[in-house]
Amino acid sequence: xxxxxxxxxxxxxxxxxxxxxxxxxxxxxxxxxxxxxxxxxxxxxxxxxxxxxxxxxxxxxxxxxxxxxxxxxxxxxxxxxxxxxxxxxxxxxxxxxxxxxxxxxxxxxxxxxxxxxxxxxxxxxxxxxxxxxxxxxxxxxxxxxxxxxxxxxxxxxxxxxxxxxxxxxxxxxxxxxxxxxxxxxxxxxxxxxxxxxxxxxxxxxxxxxxxxxxxxxxxxxxxxxxxxxxxxxxxxxxxxxxxxxxxxxxxxxxxxxxxxxxxxxxxxxxxxxxxxxxxxxxxxxxxxxxxxxxxxxxxxxxxxxxxxxxxxxxxxxxxxxxxxxxxxxxxxxxxxxxxxxxxxxxxxxxxxxxxxxxxxxxxxxxxxxxxxxxxxxxxxxxxxxxxxxxxxxxxxxxxxxxxxxxxxxxxxxxxxxxxxxxxxxxxxxxxxxxxxxxxxxxxxxxxxxxxxxxxxxxxxxxxxxxxxxxxxxxxxxxxxxxxxxxxxxxxxxxxxxxxxxxxxxxxxxxxxxxxxxxxxxxxxxxxxxxxxxxxxxxxxxxxxxxxxxxxxxxxxxxxxxxxxxxxxxxxxxxxxxxxxxxxxxxxxxxxxxxxxxxxxxxxxxxxxxxxxxxxxxxxx
Length: 620
Description:
The protein is α+β, with helices and mostly antiparallel strands. The chain is built from ten helices and 34 strands. The radius of gyration is 41 Å and the shape is elongated. The relative contact order is 0.09.
């Protein structure tokens, strides 16, 4: 009986322990990925100044909005510009955050639910709870907005002071909702933090309006544009309360900037929303990799896979020019200074910095023997078979990712190949003496015959030439016309200068662009392609510009521009350009998009116009 009780207790204890272990490990085993969001991408120079490091901050959430924890580099895949890159490191993001809170204080926030609680009270309570969940080093800035945005608290890690400022917020009766102006100002405020984790959380119960009209000077597109520029990239998380919110525009802002849009069906949802955002931001992943890509806009695709679920997100980011790395340094390790080498020789080199190598070539006596575009770069097996004995020059040449080269040379003596002497065949005479080989006699006889034949041929030709000279007429007595009858009359065709179009010098300069500096100039020569892609002659990296937008060409003495099927089209001085093209005059404004405008210039066209305008008088 006692044994049965003891067994029962042991079973119960083991069952409880097993349940506890399963409960503790369930989140790690059972969490299924529901959503992957790239929140923020930044590019920094590596410590050795040889390349750029891309830092991707991303959130991975489950179906219950809780963060998915415990992911490693094996769970992620990164593609830049369509090519897979090697992930350097994956870890939970631990650097401090900079959060901008923007809370609507318009008159409609005085609305009450069935319990009598106002939207203002629910928003303040949820925001204060959010602030209390932040880490000590995290900074918070606070905006309230109605008729205009008002900065209540600048960036500070004094969370208690920020909570008090939120508590003092109150809705203003009959006040408007200047939503987009506030979001625009919040982005500019977030940009004051040069790098690291940044985010904006914006709460509203309505749409941007004032007395039936738009309240803000800016639009939702302006907010998206400023939040996704090359120097300011910050995610905007939007929270909508009530039926009057513009859910479509809030969703667009969140989606394009790397944030998230949450729509509350009741005031009780707000605290859960802020708590979910706090967990998401506090449990972001930091994914890093090294890039040697040129300056410009690039596409990044991040993929994650776990427990059969696969999600991905895509964002564009701006990469600065790669840093100027130190020149490649090359030296020989093996072989050392030896008298001679033979057979297969292992050549060992030292090439620094290793991370900057793009290609290595090995030469022997200026002849390319091997080229490598993948590691290992520093080993070459040199087969000396077939080389004559003596001195030979071994050269190694390395090319870095920026196209710069470095080289090193050494002179080595290759041992002469061993050969077996061949005994000459001899003919024995009757007296026992060595006689000359038979081949020697035959060669001498053939040489003698050839010499005799040559003398006969020379004598015969000499006689024929003498007879011909005696029969030839005296050309000095012939008329001039006869002397040159045998000269062929050759007609030379010269190019017609009128058919050749010399392209006069021309250029375009940037008048307006999201990324390029105003006044930047591009040369126009022949057919000049314009577009967002880097393989165009004129690259305008604005998002509103198509990859192949248009082309400028010179035809029949004038410059013309035509549309290559772009999304936003082309206008020249306000006139729409069709596929057939339109003439460009010097000073013409070329509009590729609302915020992408160029100005065409050609000195030759200006001078030609001035020449044509002059009136000339001729005496008849």
